[in-house]
Amino acid sequence: MNIHLNHAEAGTAGQVVTFSLIQDDRLHILHPQQIVAFRGSSSSRQDKFMNISGIYRKKKLIKSEITGPCQFVAALPPGFTMKEVQLTENSDLLYDFRHLFFYTDGVTMHTKIQKIKNMLITRDAVKMKFSGQGKIGLLTQGQVCQQELHPTAPLYVDAGSIIAYPENAHLELTVYGNNLASQHMNYHWKMTGHGSVLFQAGRENYKLQQDVNDEGLFKRILKEVIPFGNVIIK
């Protein structure tokens, strides 16, 4: 199986992903409505109802099972990108199921119940652990970043930006910095342990865009009061 990601248009136009499957390849697509072009036998695509847990977490009824040989194109909305992950025998990351875009045959999913405090913050009772030989595709907002954890030096990561973290990592919900900083930030996970954590870097982009594009009340008043203000003040 070959996956080609078009990064050139990943900004305002959204990202385009082309999947090329050979004979005996089988891919499970959890957002089949994003498929915009398909080449191959029509019988290569079989849509099926998701199980109850999948319906609850993905808010979707249908998934597609696609077998090769065929080729198809999936279009992602502006601001979203896809991260391809090759699983290994030692994979111990826990994932948010909502980020899952596809998985291949040979991938097994295991449900991991979260602690009560984690449930309250993430609004999800379980995380998913993937094992086996295969690939998964993660749908994220912005670029996916990877940072190594340390046994004693904590890493603070925005709680809503976490994609995956090691099963045995120690997590503590907190804020950091002085009083002013801690009062004007989202909750973060204070993380220590071994292995790496994945997080998305574009979750807060819309807030920055609002701040940059917002002229502010004072500037708007000057434009209205000063003659030719709209020309002079940029």
Explained architecture:
- The protein is α+β, with helices and mostly antiparallel strands.
- It has a domain at 1-9 and 16-75.
- The chain has six helices and 19 strands.
- The chain has helices spanning 52-58, 116-122, 179-183, 205-213, 217-225, 229-232, and strands at 2-6, 16-21, 26-29, 35-40, 45-49, 62-67, 70-75, 80-86, 93-95, 100-104, 107-113, 126-132, 135-141, 144-148, 155-158, 162-166, 170-174, 188-192, 196-200.
- The strands form four sheets. A six-stranded antiparallel β-sheet has the order 5-6-3-10-13-8, with no helix packed on it.
- It starts with a strand and ends with a helix.
- The mean pLDDT is 81.
Notable features of this structure?
AIM24, alpha+beta, 18% helix, six-stranded antiparallel sheet, AIM24_sf, 44% strand, 234 residues, single chain
Write the layout of secondary structure elements.
Blueprint: E1 2-6, E2 16-21, E3 26-29, E4 35-40, E5 45-49, H1 52-58, E6 62-67, E7 70-75, E8 80-86, E9 93-95, E10 100-104, E11 107-113, H2 116-122, E12 126-132, E13 135-141, E14 144-148, E15 155-158, E16 162-166, E17 170-174, H3 179-183, E18 188-192, E19 196-200, H4 205-213, H5 217-225, H6 229-232
Antiparallel strand pairs: 1-2, 2-7, 3-6, 3-10, 4-7, 5-6, 8-13, 9-12, 9-16, 10-13, 11-12, 14-19, 15-18, 16-19, 17-18
Protein name: AIM24 family protein
Organism: Paenibacillus barcinonensis
Pfam families: AIM24 (PF01987)
Task: Briefly characterize the structure.
By secondary structure, this protein is an alpha+beta fold. It has helices at 52-58, 116-122, 179-183, 205-213, 217-225, 229-232; strands spanning 2-6, 16-21, 26-29, 35-40, 45-49, 62-67, 70-75, 80-86, 93-95, 100-104, 107-113, 126-132, 135-141, 144-148, 155-158, 162-166, 170-174, 188-192, 196-200.
